[in-house]
């Protein structure tokens, strides 16, 4: 990919995931089976201990792994099949997650991701399996296409 197409894919990737936009994720790397996403939790994303909620962390890991899987074929989508997460220490302050595509078959991606804090300490680690799927056609009120979730068959 050229630098221009990398920039376009980075911009379009985050804009196509409403929940990632809502959380304020910033995709800064999307190439060669690797991704990096920056994130600073807002007050409403914290748990009762004033650290980033585990659900927000798992979403950051999930999207980081998906981005790593998609970075080798941006025209193809992925859906999460399986994910395992380990939390090692509280995720506090500005965070960034790095995702890696470990292995790929024709239909599956095997990935991992880690969340790091500002001091580069690992806060959480995940592994995940994703299925490559055809991208959906545009849907919505102005579209002739019915809303159908991607198949995992």
Key traits:
3 helices; 35% strand; alpha+beta; 153 residues; disordered N terminus; 24% helix; 6-stranded antiparallel β-sheet; globular
Could you please describe the fold and organization of this structure?
- The chain contains 3 helices and 6 strands; from the N terminus they run H-H-E-E-H-E-E-E-E.
- It has helices at residues 3-15, 18-23, 54-70, and strands at residues 26-31, 34-39, 77-87, 95-104, 108-116, 122-133.
- A 6-stranded antiparallel sheet has the order 1-2-4-5-6-3.
- A hairpin with a 2-residue loop joins strand 1 and strand 2.
- The longest helix is centred in the middle third of the chain and has 17 residues, at 54-70.
- The radius of gyration is 16 Å and the shape is globular.
- The chain starts with a helix and ends in a 20-residue tail after the last strand.
The average pLDDT score comes to 87
Oligomer: single chain
What integer value in Å does the Rg equal?
16 Å
**Share in β-strands:** 35-45%
Shape: globular
What's the helix-strand series?
A: HHEEHEEEE
Query: End-to-end span in angstroms?
Result: 30 Å
């Amino acid at each position: 990919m050229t630098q221009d197409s990398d920039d376009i894919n980075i911009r379009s990737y985050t804009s196509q995931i409403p929940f990632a936009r809502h959380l304020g994720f910033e995709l800064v790397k999307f190439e060669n089976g690797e991704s990096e996403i920056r994130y600073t939790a807002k007050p409403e994303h914290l748990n009762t201990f004033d650290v980033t909620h585990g659900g927000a962390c798992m979403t950051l890991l999930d999207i980081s792994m998906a981005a790593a899987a998609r970075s080798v074929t941006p025209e193809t989508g992925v859906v999460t099949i399986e994910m395992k997460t380990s939390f090692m220490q509280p995720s506090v302050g500005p965070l960034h997650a790095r995702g890696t595509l470990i292995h790929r078959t024709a239909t599956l991606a095997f990935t991992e991701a880690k969340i790091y804090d500002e001091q580069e300490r690992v806060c959480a680690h995940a592994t995940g399996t994703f299925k490559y799927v055809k991208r959906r056609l545009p849907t919505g009120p102005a579209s002739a296409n019915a809303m159908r979730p991607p198949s995992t068959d």
